[in-house]
Amino acid sequence: MQLHDARRLHYDVRLEVDGVLKSWAVPRGPSLDPVVKRLAVFTTDHDLEYASYEGVHADSKYGSGAVIVWDAGVYTNLTPGSAADAISNGHLKVRLHGVKLSGAWAFTRTGEDWLLVKVRDDDADPSRDLTVSEPRSVLSGLTIQEMAASRPSGQET
């Protein structure tokens, strides 16, 4: 999961499916509270190499601005059938095994957009907001602001 300061700050959830990164932009980030539904806008597929990208984009096909790897790990598809079929059918349930995020999460299509919701399990915790308490990259240790300041404007890394 990357934090991307493009036109608007958002979290990009990226799951490897059939050799590409299926991607959702989540403006408010993930919530550990199962009653909170987060807008998740399905975006273009990304190349696998992009999963570990950190830097500052200038006029990139993936959007300009600073990017950090906010969380990293693997996932397990909990939906019957393949993850690709689940996405096509509009409902994907996964278990995340990340540095910051763990437990089950559900993506559900609602018209053109999707919702990301934490499933009620032992990892649910309505009292915690990791987007506030854990702002740093799991790779570089930088915040999104520090990443943006690390490169002169207009230079892509």
UniProtKB/TrEMBL annotation:
It holds the Pfam family LigD_N. Residues 2-109 form the DNA ligase D 3'-phosphoesterase domain. InterPro entries: LigD_PE_domain (IPR014144). NCBIfam families: LigD_PE_dom. This is DNA ligase D 3'-phosphoesterase domain-containing protein. It comes from Kribbella yunnanensis.
